[in-house]
Amino acid sequence: MPQFAANLSMMFNEHEFPARFPAAAKAGFKAVEFLFPYDYSPAEVAQWLEESHLQNILFNLPPGDWAAGERGIAALPGREKEFRKGVDKAIEYALALGTPQLHMMAGIVPADGDKAAHRKTYLASMKYAAQALAKHQLNLLLEPINTRDMPGYFLSTQAQAHELREECGEPNVKVQMDFYHAQIMEGDLVETFKKHFKDIAHTQIASVPKRNEPDDGEINYEYIYKLLDEMGYQGWVGCEYRPKGKTEDGLGWLKPYL
Hints:
Pfam families: AP_endonuc_2. By secondary structure, this protein is an alpha/beta fold. It has helices spanning about 15-25, 40-50, 80-95, 115-135, 160-170, 180-185, 190-195, 220-230, and strands at about 5, 30-35, 55-60, 100-105, 140, 175-180, 200-205, 235-240.
């Protein structure tokens, strides 16, 4: 049976961030993920996890200036020094929180940008981050994001992510398969998951097209959950969706899996 983790950046937004931890635990979750912990100290976040008896399974490296629209800097030439400082900061948090894997956001690149330069920068960032994380037995995750929600994002398909992962050659580089993003960009979810299964370390779910609870929309998630079990998937399934209303009111889909 799949293991589900609440995404606290999207779910339980009727509560302030610290209160989302006990709310998730009360709803039956054993683990959580979130975009960023950096507005709080490592000790604070670790305390919220401990008090609610939750694991943190994932968060992102610092993304650049999020408020200004940046969505990562790993593929942006000229930002290498900032990126490396961000890796150090993320590792500090991961060690304090017991987080086993970190996601490296690629960034938005201009349509007329030098594709070769962005690719070269991204690969160099990946290798640097992977080697830094490996010293602490941490995995580095790559996540393709659909270009409808995030126009210009450097990494947009599972095929592209796995090609870059292979070229990098670091064994602790893995890929996230967010079924929401993959359905929008590629479709053919089952065969794509089977093809790349051994190098997929994390999955995420949401309805398509509205990114709400996974029991709605065009993806048959009951079929996907059976596939995960049949394949022996050992990772977590992150619930990265926007509840239609109060989070707790939309969790009926989860009850059979708790």
